[in-house]
Amino acid sequence: MLKRLLSVVIAAAVMTPGFAAAAEPAPGPDVLTVPDRAALAAHIDALEAGDRVVVATEEGVIAGELIDKDADDIVIDQPLVQGGAERIAIPRADVRGVRYQSRPSQAHATVKGLVITAIVIGFVYLALRHFVPTGP
Questions:
Q1: How far apart are CA 93 and CA 108, in angstroms?
Q2: What dihedral do alpha carbons 112, 115, 120, 121 form, nearest 10°?
Q3: Quick one: which of 60, 64, 72, 133 is 20 to 30 A from 111 by CA?
Q4: C-beta of residue 69 within 8 angstroms of C-beta of residue 51
Q5: Is 103 helix (H, G, I), strand (E, B) or coil?
Q6: Domain ranges of the chain
């Protein structure tokens, strides 16, 4: 009986912080609000479709992938827990801050792949040269 009670207490202690963290809204410490509306507009204009964005508004923080932007709205696909995405249109006047991560360019990914391939080939060559006997 004591073992079972101890197991329940330990399980509750381990699981409770996870439940509390999941129930709380996502904080936005990485999203900085900008009092200068012109600078904020310049950042919004620099966004491209496909960028990962976090937008701070009066109501809270919305994170997702930028789909479209125009003079009046910013359209974001916010991923849903059960799958799929919810399309949200945020008026530019409501935006208080933006944080974004541009998607990596295809050229950068290609160069990274080539470098990794060259390193692997170099290690295989050195290993074969060192461990494979060379003649009598």
A1: 35
A2: 140
A3: 64
A4: no
A5: coil
A6: 28-103, 104-136
Cα separation, 49 vs 74, in Å, equals 10
Q: What residue type is 74 in one-letter code?
A: I
Taking the whole predicted model, whether its pTM rises above 0.90 is answered as no
The single residue listed with the structure tokens 């470098």 is 115
The Cα 80–Cα 124 span in angstroms is: 43
Position of tokens 């935006």?
A: 95
What tokens appear for 37 in the block? 């509306």
Report CA torsion sign: 17, 19, 22, 27: negative
- Where in the chain does DSSP place strands (E)? 52-57, 61-69, 73-79, 85-91, 95-101
Per-residue pLDDT of 34-68, as tens digits, reads: 567 777 788 788 888 888 888 888 888 888 888 88
The domain 28-103 having CATH identifier 2.30.30.600: the answer here is yes
Span 16-35, pLDDT tens digits = 544 433 444 444 555 555 56
